[in-house]
Each structure stands twice: as C-alpha cells, then as structure tokens.
Amino acid sequence: MSDGGDSGHTQFPHELVKELHSLVERPLRVMVVCGTQTRTLLKYGLDEVLPENLEIVSGPGCSVCVMPAGHIDAFIKIGLQPDVITATCEDLLRVPGSRDSLESIRQKGALVEVVDAPMEALDLARKYPDKIVVFTAVGFEGAAPDVAESILEAAREGITNFCVIPSIRLLPPSLDSLMKDPNQNIRGLLCSAHIESITDTEAYADLARRHHLACAVAGFEISEILRGLISIVSQIQDGHQIKNNPFAGITSREEKAVTQKMLSEVFFAVETDWRGIGSIEGSGFVIREELSIYDAVKRFNVRFAECEEEIQCNCAEIISGKGTPTDCPAFGISCTSRHPVGPCMVAQEGICASYFRYTFGRL
Ligand code: SF4
After folding, report:
1. Which atom of ligand 1 is nearest to the CA of 335?
2. Ligand 1 within 6 A of 134 CB?
3. What is the pLDDT of residues 21-58, one digit of tens each?
4. Nearest-angstrom CA–CA distance, 29 and 57
5. Measured between alpha carbons, how far is residue 329 from residues 94, 142, 210 in Å?
C-alpha cells in the first residue's frame, strides 16, 4: 500500500478502511465519477485494500476524455485560421482528433498557447490586439463560472478579439443516460465536491431517486473519498438512497444562486455529444445569441462534426464504466504515458493515465 508518494504528509486512514470492510456485506458496484478521485484512489493503493465485494468503476468525470474527436477537429479547424491564437489547457494539446491534435498543428506553425485559466486567454487578447485569441473552454460545470466571467469581462471592456469554443459539459444528464443501462448494475455514485458547488444539489438527489442509487459528494483527499464510500454503503445497507442529504453544506444556497444567475446570462444548455456515451439532451453549454461575438463556433462558422477515429482505443468503454484500462490490449504496450494513444492516457485526470502511473508496476 502506498503512503501517497509525493504528498508526503498524508496519514493512510486505516480506521476508515476497517469501517468500510465492516459495512460491506454483499457485492456492490459503485461508480467514482471524477477522474481526480480515481487518481487519488489508485495513488494510495486503495484499490488493493477495499473490500472484495465492493467493485469500483470509473465514470465520465474527465472533461478531456469525453471530448469526441469531431470536437477536437473543430478546435483544429479554428486554430488553423489566419491570425488566430488558440489558448488551451495543457491536457488538451495532445488529444487526437480524427487526424491532428493541437500540438501537431503547433508543430506545423499554428499559434497555440498553453494557459491555466480563461482570464489568461483574455490577457493574451489585450496583449495581441491584431490577433483573435480563441479559448478552448473544455470542462464540466465547475469550470463554467470562470469562462462566463471572462466573456462578461471582455464585453464590459469592449474587447472583440477574444472568443471561446464552448465545450462545457454537464454531468447529471450524462450520468442519467449511463444509469438507464440496466447492465451497469451500479448501486451508488461518488461525485466530486467541485461539481456540487455549481450544480443544484436537487439534480443529483433527483438522479439518485429515479435510478434507486445511493449518492455522496466527497472532496479529493483519501479520507474524504473513504467517507464518501462509507456514506454510500451505509445508504444502501439501510435501504435509504438519500440519507441526511449527503449533498448539503458545501456551498451555500446564496452562493449557488449568484453563480447560476451569472451562468444563465452567458450560457444555455443544449444537446451535446460525449465520447463513449453519445448525444445527450441538455448536457452542454452554448453561448447566448446576444454574446455571439464571443462564440468562436459561430464566428468562424464551424460545426462539431461526427467523424471516424483513426485510433483504436477503448476509452469509450472506460469512461462509461463498462471496462477498465487493463481490458485494453494497447494498455502499457503500444499506449503508455510517453506514447499515449487515446485521451484517457493523454489527460492528467484520464483513467488510463492514473492506472499506468500508479498500478502498472504491480499488475
Ligand atoms: Fe485508449 Fe490507451 Fe486507454 Fe487503451 S490504454 S483505452 S488505447 S487511452
């Protein structure tokens, strides 16, 4: 069992593991939705010490991994336009489209800059007024407020050489779609705290009720993840899907209302494609008509086309909880962190990347 490697000071919570063992009486399947939580779980070797009857599967909680190749193609098409600077997170650089990636077009001369936040992309627009800076807004609902703020700030300042490719995805509709598959047999969902801070908790409560699921929100520390799993198993054992509102108390109702008002000024939800899951009603944000000058998709008249991927990759099964990286014949052979084939190995939060980094030596 790892002591956490690079974290150094974290104590492994043996008592919580013991408590979990005492609670799991029969086989249960639980989805850990968030890629960061899956990474922590593997980093600490929790997968080796969890009760045998508790099967953990990963979910669609890696925003880069769920991006279909056709969407990457749209980023590339825009990035190849004259006078465009693409501002993107590092994770997205190497994700393959049907042929190219943002990194490969950068090597051919396109202007692609790595930024950590949309406001940095806006700074680039101020710095280079003769260019159009296009921010690749990839993320889940937790990333949406920063993107909305950058658009509203650009509008306030009258900056017109800045725009955004809206690729924000909303997790509750995708989970709803996955849970409709009776073969999943998932009894509980562990969701991450940063999603809860934006989304109305009722969305998760409703999801849990409709699919007869236990559900808990947890942070990213190992002890928080274990407490979340304990809450889920307790809910299932007690026959209550929602016990003591496990979603409450992280973000105040007032804070959420302010954030949601800002989001509704900028975005509205539409049907959106997810890699591995397909098209889901109301699962992605697009920019409102009155702010369309900040919508790169409209400005450059591109569309998110469906396309055949040239790569052979099992990411679709993995992000929908139907398989693990070790089921993929390429894992650790032709697909490694140095030579990633699919987005689940490229992205830091990617499930294959976490498996490769933390478990490959002991498989
Ligand atoms: Fe795709 Fe590589 Fe993961 Fe296989 S190991 S599913 S090829 S990312």
Report:
1. 2
2. no
3. 999 989 999 999 999 999 999 999 998 999 999 999 99
4. 7
5. 21, 34, 36
Domain-embedded: residue 17 = no
Which residue's CA is the closest to the ligand 1 atom numbered 6?
Answer: 314
Residue 244 covered by a domain: yes
Choose which residue among 94, 95, 341 to substitute to test ligand 1 binding: the one with the highest number of ligand atoms within 8 A of its C-beta: 341
Q: What is the predicted pLDDT for the residue at 330?
A: 92
1 is a domain residue: no
Beta bridge partners of 134: 86, 163
pTM, 2 dp:
0.87
- The protein residue whose alpha carbon is closest to atom 5 in ligand 1 is 331
Q: How far is CA 196 from the centre of its chain?
A: 13
In-domain check, residue 10: no
Q: pLDDT digits over 229-249, tens only?
A: 999 999 988 776 555 444 455
**Domain span holding position 91:** 27-363
Amino acid at 37: Q
| Cβ(316) – ligand 1 distance below 6 Å | no
158 CB-near residues (< 8 Å, 6+ apart): none
Cα 326 to ligand 1 centroid, rounded to whole Å: 9
> How many domains are contained in the chain?
1
Domain containing 290 — which CATH number? Answer: 3.40.50.11740
Could you tell me the mean pLDDT of each successive run of 10 residues in the chain, 363 residues long? 45 90 93 92 91 93 88 94 96 88 95 97 98 96 94 98 95 91 88 65 78 88 92 85 50 78 95 89 96 96 70 83 90 90 88 91 61
